[in-house]
Design brief:
Distance between the termini: 29 Å
CATH architecture of the largest domain: 2-Layer Sandwich
Largest sheet: 8 strands, antiparallel
CATH superfamily of the largest domain: Phosphatidylinositol Phosphate Kinase II Beta
Strand content: 15-25%
CATH class of the largest domain: Alpha Beta
Protein name: 1-phosphatidylinositol-4-phosphate 5-kinase
Number of helices: 10
Number of strands: 15
Pfam families: PIP5K
Bound molecules: adenosine-5'-triphosphate, calcium ion
Radius of gyration: 22 Å
Organism: Hydnum rufescens UP504
Number of domains: 2
EC number: 2.7.1.68
Keywords: ATP-binding, Kinase, Nucleotide-binding, Phosphoprotein, Transferase
């Protein structure tokens, strides 16, 4: 997979799906958002709200261009996650996702079959997920919430919403909305997806030299002698957070996750323009009044809010305008300043052994965290284990996965400007 967006115009195969996703999010999220915040109850974790859209529309749902059904899962929990823990401005969230910005599609689907979409401003990613992952995320949602609460700097994917659309012939598509780890305003010069597993974990070097956006893997990292160059202070923070996060994933019996590492070299800066000429996006032709309006404290939607919402709902036709990349933000978004690992230009700047800054910024996060070690993975483990070392393949039980992940990352982190290279055994 490469971080390149493809335009989704009206003739695109996924246009209807996209339209339905965004319409559903807009209505579902603004509905919850229009109410006064209240403390969560246990039922909020299992709650799901259904919406039926059709071309006629009704009291609850505005008319839409297509017939479809939409489900919003645990809306109050995700609202609390977004506002209390991830420091997102509610109106910004909706606007980024559904107002001025429609999405671009990320590369081609990987072996999991998931599709990725970027919001226009590049802050959010929509990932379609398998039904099993969806069910799993719902199951662990209370634990995930607790973990995020007690670990404000967690490196785990930030989940902002969990939804499903059902198309008329019954096809169900589940998706999550999460943070894009990479910034809109910095070229990423190298990308790695690290699991701590070495079997089959290599992107062919001859292809990599032609493609600066290739997602490289563990063996590329080792063979190129890469290190996370962090002095004692930053190293301690990172390793401690990774330890807690992997401990959590172990308790959830999750495996197959990775640390996604984007490297920005400040010397090189943005001169290669790796983002701009490739991020094709399109813009819907809608303007709706849901800007930073205060939400009423009365328990009901404030009438002006409701009116704005109705206006918003009427005008919902995204229209492709093509390759407009000049509108990418020039700076980092506000929410990232709250987090240690996103404190430097949205990332984590390298330091030397004296904790002095160096010329590299890392963009880091633990991604793909919804795969439990199920019987399927166990089978893969046995099968691949026949051909290769059972402990080096990626499918190992969760406890083994977590400790291997953590020891790999500990081994490849050291102060910049000297020291030894990591050598795999
Ligand atoms: P598989 O199960 O085959 O590994 P997947 O479809 O579950 O794939 P992920 O592993 O979640 O996909 O992500 C695939 C790639 O997409 C990552 O290697 C990374 O390049 C990009 N990506 C995923 N999540 C993010 C994110 N939050 N921010 C930036 N890039 C991301
Ligand atoms: Ca993955
Ligand atoms: Ca996956």
């Amino acid at each position: 997979k490469v971080l390149v967006g493809n335009l989704i115009g009206e003739d695109h195969v996924n246009y209807v799906l996209m339209y339905n996703m965004l319409t559903g999010i807009r209505i579902g999220v603004s509905r919850c958002q229009a109410k006064v915040k209240r403390p969560l109850t246990p039922d909020d974790y299992t709650a799901r709200h259904k919406f039926s859209f059709d071309i006629v529309g009704n009291e609850l749902t505005p008319s839409a261009r297509y017939d479809f059904k939409f489900k919003d899962y645990a809306p109050w929990v995700f609202r609390e996650l977004r506002e209390e823990h991830f420091h997102l401005d509610p109106a910004d969230y909706l606007l980024s996702l559904t107002s001025k910005y429609i999405l671009s599609e990320l590369g081609s689907p990987g072996k999991s079959g998931s599709f990725f979409y970027f919001s226009r401003d590049y802050r959010f990613i929509i990932k379609t997920i398998h039904h099993n992952e969806h069910a799993f995320l719902r199951k662990i949602l209370p634990d995930y919430h607790r973990h995020v609460k007690t670990n404000p700097h967690t490196l785990l994917s930030r989940f902002y919403g969990l939804h499903r659309v059902k198309l008329p012939r019954g096809r169900k598509i589940h998706f999550v909305i999460m943070n894009n780890l990479f910034p809109p305003h910095r070229d990423i010069h190298e990308t790695y997806d690290l699991k701590g597993s070495t079997v089959g974990r290599e992107y062919p070097e001859e292809k990599a030299s032609k493609n600066p956006r290739a997602v490289l893997k563990d063996l590329n990292w080792i063979n190129r002698g890469r290190q996370l160059e962090l002095g004692p202070e930053k190293r301690a923070y990172l390793i401690e957070q990774l330890r807690r996060d992997s401990e959590f994933l172990k308790e959830m019996h999750v495996m197959d996750y990775s640390l996604l590492v984007g490297i920005h070299n400040m010397q090189r800066g943005n001169r290669d323009n790796l983002r701009r000429n490739t991020l094709k996006i399109f813009q819907p032709d809608i303007h709706y009044g849901l800007r930073r309006r205060k939400i009423s404290q009365s328990g009901k939607a404030d009438p002006s809010e409701a009116m704005a919402m109705r206006r918003a709902m009427r005008s919902s036709d995204p229209k492709a305008i093509g390759n407009d990349s000049t509108a990418l933000p020039e700076s980092d978004s506000e929410d990232r300043r709250h987090f240690i690992f996103h404190q430097d230009e949205g990332g984590y700047r390298a330091t030397d052994e004296a904790n002095e800054p160096m010329d590299t910024i890392y963009y880091l996060g633990v991604i793909d965290i919804c795969t439990p070690y199920t019987s399927l993975k166990r089978l893969e483990h046995l099968w691949k284990g026949l051909k290769a070392d059972r402990h080096k393949i990626s499918a190992v039980p969760a406890a083994e996965y977590a400790s291997r992940f953590l020891s790999f990352l500990t081994a490849v982190t050291r102060g910049g400007g000297g020291g030894q290279r990591f050598k795999p055994e």
